[in-house]
Design a protein that fits this description.
single chain
């Protein structure tokens, strides 16, 4: 079992930065690839970023490339999403998720665990 708790959301002006963190419980954290998804009001939950179990591979949706970075610390059971150059369209609830690392990106429906999300609001 892995439990995920996100933090770091809030209100920021366009062009600003936020750092989201996801704290995981469970001894098998390092077996999981970690993901960030987001869901804007009235829209489906969409993939934003992911990182492999060892941190050696990262993946990003096109709309965040060059602006967001993802990292993890398996010793502390945390994964971080650094978001820079934020835009109003980045406004969403951001969810941390985990899926066993099979060496490739896995779709949303194959996530094993989800956090409850943290709200990010970007004002224009």
């Amino acid at each position: 079992q892995v439990q995920l708790v996100e933090s770091g959301g809030g209100l920021v002006q366009a062009g600003g930065s936020l750092r989201l963190s996801c704290a995981a419980s469970g001894r098998t954290f390092s077996s999981y690839a970690m993901y960030w998804f987001r869901q804007a009001p009235g829209k489906e939950r969409e993939f934003a970023a992911a990182i492999s179990w060892g941190g050696g591979s990262t993946y990003f949706a096109d709309f965040v490339k060059g602006r967001f970075t993802i990292s993890r610390d398996n010793g502390k059971n945390t994964v971080t999403l650094q978001m820079n150059s934020l835009k109003p369209e980045d406004t969403a609830v951001y969810y941390c998720a985990a899926a066993l690392d099979l060496g490739t990106i896995r779709p949303r429906d194959e996530m094993d665990y989800w956090g409850k999300g943290t709200l990010v609001t970007v004002s224009s």
